[in-house]
């Protein structure tokens, strides 16, 4: 990086800077003329100089110049105008100069703004590009939040300064010098007064502002540190809660905010002191002009027109001068910011940019051995992790790496995956150093997976396919308007030094995954998901998800058939009672009171329980049917039973898991409410109290809670109210509530609810698991499994994949690596969160699936279970950073060595 911001700006924008400087120089001509014109108007047509006699005229717009070597040249002889005509003509010229000066400013400012935004775009891209090229070890020493803050906020002023870097001193300095020169031309002593004041401002104010720069630097550093600290709190929230240190963090944040407050308060005080002095000096000069200039005018040594012109010219002098001083402060401030950015991002050694060059063409297979020669690795403290290890791993070979924790096995695998760089020694393929190979080779032909996982915010599918998005594979189809817009964006990207890669292209390398296109991609994905045992998890996510009927047409079209098939299957297996279907004319005992009353689903978030309860039609229905008093009495019984049964239990007692209508925290609230409502009369309760009591009855399910509160009479009353509700439902509610229909798909309900069209009986043990298993078989039978799987793949994994469990994240991470079908697979204890039995099963699945006929990539696996090494061609046993033993399973298991101890 360039160490000087000015050099960086000039290097990247010199042609544009030269052009705008030429425009600034041209703008000085009308700017000077606008100062002289008021004097001509006052002295000429207004005071009558040159119009002494009646009918006197003067020449207007006479344009003639004495040109060297040519002589006197007359371009326009002008026109004769009387006193009034001259006044109007000069006034119109003044107006024209005002417009012309305004147009110059408009063009210059617009050009500066565009130039600044391009530079901001350029520097941000370059900084992110450098982040992508940082050596792996550097990321252990920096906070992601601080890096993000610098790129987002701290370089922002640099974009604004780019347009002003050379233009502002030229424009503002030119305007100030022009105004000062004009004043000196009119009267030398008045000019000297203005020059003296300008000199004081130019010397004193910048010196005073050095304190402002220092305070600004402190403010910037403390704000960046606060951002990094907040990022640490977010990332470590589990540790904070687990150790009861939330108040320690509050104290730390309060201390930092206090420091920032102190700095900013000092900054404001000093800033406004400087502003006061600057404004005072600016206002002293007009006082001197009025006093001294007026005295000279009274003596006849200065005419009124000159005095007016001088005062008018000085009126335009403080503005450019103040802005010039502000520019100098901004220059120093931005240079300080740039220096800090330079120090943070000037990291050595950076990954060579050629290693990350775009490669669209397919990359050939790696057919040479992976040779490790005298490899030595250390951690950040300098402790040896691996000490002078040499080994050769052949293509198609399976190698198990075993050893106790801290043996160096994990670090060795990290080095093979380029996660850490060697202190000494080399890892080569076909004589080429692994670190010198382009990422287009290592990122496609070598796959690495460990227990550490990270997923970007987005769908499960986008993260699963992330390892296949190396380059744009196809160009997007644009209409004429979109094509023009893309062309403009591409041109701007080139001017800002950005690549013109189109994010809207299809970046997925389907052939690398064994597919021909997006149509058969799921067929290539499914075996991988099955191998890592995550298919059922994704299927469960799909069943809990709502279905986009515009995308998943096949699933929504076959839901009615699926319902019938499910009923037939349950009947054949003697499980008729496991699901109670919805019936408009009957009460479903396995559903809540609220579900029975509504008999449909709400389109959330447009409609919620609270909004529905507040709707006038819903409230009128409750009053007319008498359900308000019935459900109020039912809610009181529920509250009394719950408080009586659970008020002595601790909040984490498993019994609370059975309560769908109340949490442990609600018990004291309802206990106090029951004491207040001892009369139990509906009329005595406030609307808020009635709502709190009735809400309990809405979540009540008799077979689950078993308080014996649902009588046949009440159930019939609820069914009758349901029919009345749907018979006269107003249009605004009908649009937001979808009624259950056995012959129709319900988009606002989950896929599970759509297929069941009922509720699972609570009396049946393991009913939910059995239903899911049957559904999976039905999806397969109707050739819908891949469609349903694609619904689950649309699940949003959240920030860093945190909406998935650790087990799911490790399985998905492994699947992402497998999907690339590389030549070398390096697995570094990738399933540490799983129990040993599942780890063993997944390991066997992967070994068997990867080594099919005609496909035999090299597999290097750091195993947690040494017994699984039997499946591998060779075993490398690490101990204390060295290679302790090497050989095949029969040799090492019979030998009385360390491997035999690990087996026992």
From TrEMBL:
TM spans, by residue? 15-33, 87-108, 176-205, 280-298
Q: How does it sit in the membrane?
A: Multi-pass membrane protein
Q: Which keywords fit this entry according to its UniProt record?
A: ATP-binding, Membrane, Nucleotide-binding, Plasmid, Transmembrane, Transmembrane helix
Which residue numbers delimit the ABC transmembrane type-1 domain?
75-326
- Main location as per UniProt: membrane
Q: Look up the domain of life of the source.
A: Bacteria
> Where is it localised?
Cell membrane
One Gene Ontology term of the molecular function aspect: ATP hydrolysis activity
Cite the Pfam families for this sequence. Answer: ABC_membrane (PF00664), ABC_tran (PF00005)
| Gene Ontology CC annotations of this record | plasma membrane
Q: Does the keyword DNA damage apply?
A: no
Q: Which residues form the ABC transporter domain?
A: 370-902
PANTHER family attached to this UniProt entry: ATP-BINDING CASSETTE SUB-FAMILY B (PTHR24221), HAEMOLYSIN SECRETION ATP-BINDING PROTEIN (PTHR24221:SF646)
Indicate what this protein is called per its UniProt record. ABC transporter ATP-binding protein
Q: What is the lineage of its organism?
A: Bacteria, Pseudomonadati, Pseudomonadota, Alphaproteobacteria, Hyphomicrobiales
């Amino acid at each position: 990086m360039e160490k000087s911001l000015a050099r960086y700006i000039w290097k990247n924008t010199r042609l544009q800077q030269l052009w705008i400087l030429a425009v600034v120089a041209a703008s000085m001509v009308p700017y000077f003329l606008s100062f002289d014109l008021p004097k001509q108007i006052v002295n000429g047509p207004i005071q009558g100089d040159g119009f002494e006699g009646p009918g006197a005229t003067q020449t207007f717009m006479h344009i003639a110049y004495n040109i060297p070597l040519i002589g006197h040249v007359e371009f326009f002889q002008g026109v004769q105008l009387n006193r009034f005509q001259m006044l109007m003509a000069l006034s119109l010229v003044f107006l024209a100069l005002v417009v012309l000066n305004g147009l110059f400013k408009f063009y210059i400012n617009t050009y500066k703004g565009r130039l600044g935004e391009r530079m901001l775009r350029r520097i941000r891209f370059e900084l992110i590009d450098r982040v992508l090229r940082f050596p792996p070890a550097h990321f252990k020493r920096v906070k992601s939040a601080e890096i993000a803050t610098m790129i987002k906020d701290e370089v922002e002023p640099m974009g604004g300064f780019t347009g002003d870097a050379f233009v502002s001193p030229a424009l503002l300095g030119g305007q100030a010098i022009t105004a000062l020169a004009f004043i000196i031309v009119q009267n030398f002593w008045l000019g000297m007064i203005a020059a003296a004041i300008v000199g004081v401002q130019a010397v004193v104010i910048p010196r005073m502002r050095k304190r402002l720069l220092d305070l600004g630097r402190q403010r910037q550093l403390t704000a960046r540190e606060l951002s990094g600290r907040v990022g640490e709190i977010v990332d470590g929230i589990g540790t904070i809660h687990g150790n009861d240190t939330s108040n320690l963090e509050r104290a730390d944040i309060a201390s930092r905010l206090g420091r920032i407050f102190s700095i900013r308060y000092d900054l404001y005080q000093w800033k406004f002191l400087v502003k006061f002095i600057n404004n005072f000096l600016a206002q002293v000069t007009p006082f001197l002009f009025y006093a001294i200039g007026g005295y000279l005018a009274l003596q006849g040594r200065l005419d009124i027109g000159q005095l007016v012109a001088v005062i008018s010219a000085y009126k335009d002098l403080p503005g450019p001068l103040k802005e010039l001083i502000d520019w100098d402060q901004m220059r120093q401030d931005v240079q300080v910011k740039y220096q800090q950015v330079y120090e943070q991002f000037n990291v050595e050694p950076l990954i060579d940019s050629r290693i990350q060059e775009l490669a669209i063409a397919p990359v050939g297979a790696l057919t040479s051995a992976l040779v490790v020669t005298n490899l030595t690795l250390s951690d950040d403290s300098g402790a040896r992790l691996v000490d002078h290890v040499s080994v050769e791993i052949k293509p198609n070979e399976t190698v198990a790496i075993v050893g106790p924790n801290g043996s160096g096995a994990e670090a060795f695998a990290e080095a093979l995956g380029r996660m850490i760089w060697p202190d000494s020694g080399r890892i080569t393929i076909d004589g080429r150093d692994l670190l010198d190979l382009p990422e287009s080779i290592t990122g496609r032909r070598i796959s690495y997976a460990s227990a550490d996982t990270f997923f970007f915010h987005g769908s499960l599918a986008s993260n699963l396919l992330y390892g296949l998005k190396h380059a744009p594979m196809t160009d997007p189809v644009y209409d004429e308007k979109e094509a023009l817009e893309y062309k403009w964006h591409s041109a701007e990207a080139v001017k800002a030094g950005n690549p013109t890669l189109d994010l809207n292209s299809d970046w997925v390398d389907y052939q690398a995954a064994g597919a021909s296109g997006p149509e058969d991609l799921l067929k290539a994905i499914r075996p991988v998901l099955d191998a890592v045992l995550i298919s059922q998890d994704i299927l469960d996510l799909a069943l809990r998800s709502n279905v986009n009927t515009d995308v998943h047409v096949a699933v929504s079209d076959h839901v009615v058939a699926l319902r019938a098939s499910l009923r037939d299957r349950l009947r054949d297996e003697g499980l008729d009672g496991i699901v109670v279907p919805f019936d408009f004319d009957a009460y479903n005992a396995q559903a809540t009171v609220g579900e029975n009353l509504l008999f449909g689903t709400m389109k959330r978030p447009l409609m919620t329980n609270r909004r529905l309860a507040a709707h006038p039609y819903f409230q009128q229905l409750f009053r007319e049917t008498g359900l308000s008093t019935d459900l109020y009495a039912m809610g009181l019984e529920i509250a009394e039973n719950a408080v009586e049964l659970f008020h002595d239990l601790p909040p984490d007692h498993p019994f609370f898991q059975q309560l769908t209508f109340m949490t442990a925290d609600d018990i004291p609230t309802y206990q106090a409410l029951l004491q207040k409502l001892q009369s139990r009369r509906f009329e005595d309760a406030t609307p808020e109290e009635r709502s709190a009591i009735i809400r309990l009855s809405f979540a009540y399910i008799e077979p689950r809670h078993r308080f014996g509160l649902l009588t046949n009479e009440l159930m019939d009353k609820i069914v009758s109210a349901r029919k009345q509700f749907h018979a006269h439902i107003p249009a605004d509610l009908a649009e937001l509530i979808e009624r259950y229909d056995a012959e129709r798909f319900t988009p606002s309900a989950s896929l599970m609810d759509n297929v069941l069209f009922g509720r699972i009986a609570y009396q049946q043990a393991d009913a939910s698991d059995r239903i899911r298993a049957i559904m999976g078989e039905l999806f397969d039978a109707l050739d819908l499994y891949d469609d349903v799987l694609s619904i689950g793949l649309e699940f949003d994994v959240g920030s860093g994949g945190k909406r998935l469990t650790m087990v799911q994240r490790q399985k998905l991470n492994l699947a992402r690596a497998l999907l690339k079908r590389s030549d070398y697979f390096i697995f570094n204890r990738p399933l540490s969160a799983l129990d040993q039995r599942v780890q063993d099963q997944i390991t066997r699945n992967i070994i068997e699936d990867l080594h099919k006929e005609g496909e035999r990539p090299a597999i290097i696996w750091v195993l947690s279970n040494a017994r699984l090494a039997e499946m591998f061609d060779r075993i490398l046993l690490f101990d204390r950073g060295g290679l302790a033993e090497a050989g095949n399973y029969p040799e090492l298991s019979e030998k009385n060595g360390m491997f035999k101890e690990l087996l026992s």
